[in-house]
C-alpha cells in the first residue's frame, strides 16, 4: 500500500481506539443504569456497536501489521506499475481519465485511485506510453490509450 493509504488506516485505528471505544463504553454504562437488560434496546444497540467497532479495530490492526508500505515518490520509470499515476484516453469517447494504481484498502474510483487487483489496473500493469489496452469490465469492454505515466 502507499504511504498515504497506510496513514489513513492508522488514523482510523487511532480514532476507533481513542474516541469511539470510550464513547461506546459510556453508552453501555448509561444503558445499564436504566435497569432490566433483557428488554433494554439501548443496551443491545450499544453492545452491537461495540462488537462492530472491536471487529473493525482487529481488522485494521491485522492489515497494518501485514502491510508493506511503498513510497511512490521514490519510484520512477516509463512502465505502469504499483503506485503509478496513469493518464488514459478512452478511444471511444475521447474522454481523458487519470488513475493511480493503489492497494485494495485505499482504492476509490471516484477520486481516481484504482485497486491493483481491478480489471483496469491488471490491464495497465507492464504497459508504456502509447500502448493501447483492452479492459474487460462488468459494464463491457473498453479500449484506452496510455498518454502519460508518472509517480507522485
TrEMBL record:
Keywords: DNA-binding, Elongation factor, Protein biosynthesis, Transcription, Transcription regulation
Molecular function (Gene Ontology), one example: RNA polymerase binding
InterPro entries linked to this entry: GreA/GreB_C_sf, TF_GreA/GreB_CS, Tscrpt_elong_fac_GreA, Tscrpt_elong_fac_GreA/B, Tscrpt_elong_fac_GreA/B_C, Tscrpt_elong_fac_GreA/B_fam, Tscrpt_elong_fac_GreA/B_N, Tscrpt_elong_fac_GreA/B_N_sf
A Pfam match: GreA_GreB_N
Primary gene name: greA
PROSITE patterns to which the protein is assigned, alphabetical: GREAB_1
Domain Transcription elongation factor GreA/GreB C-terminal: 79-150
Any one GO BP annotation for this protein: DNA-templated transcription elongation
Membership in a protein family: Belongs to the GreA/GreB family.
This protein's name: Transcription elongation factor GreA
Amino acid at each position: 500500500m502507499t504511504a498515504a493509504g497506510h496513514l489513513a488506516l492508522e488514523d482510523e485505528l487511532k480514532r476507533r481506539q481513542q474516541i469511539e471505544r470510550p464513547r461506546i463504553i459510556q453508552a453501555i454504562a448509561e444503558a445499564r443504569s436504566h435497569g432490566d437488560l433483557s428488554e433494554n434496546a439501548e443496551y443491545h444497540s450499544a453492545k452491537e456497536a461495540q462488537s462492530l467497532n472491536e471487529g473493525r479495530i482487529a481488522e485494521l490492526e491485522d492489515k497494518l501489521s501485514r502491510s508493506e508500505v511503498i513510497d511512490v515518490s521514490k519510484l520512477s520509470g516509463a512502465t505502469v506499475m504499483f503506485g503509478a499515476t496513469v493518464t488514459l484516453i478512452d478511444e471511444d469517447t475521447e474522454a481523458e481519465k487519470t488513475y493511480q494504481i493503489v492497494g485494495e484498502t485505499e482504492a476509490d474510483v471516484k477520486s481516481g485511485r484504482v485497486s491493483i487487483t481491478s480489471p483496469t489496473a491488471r490491464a495497465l500493469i507492464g504497459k508504456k506510453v502509447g500502448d493501447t489496452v483492452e479492459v474487460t469490465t462488468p459494464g463491457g469492454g473498453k479500449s484506452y490509450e496510455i498518454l502519460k505515466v508518472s509517480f507522485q
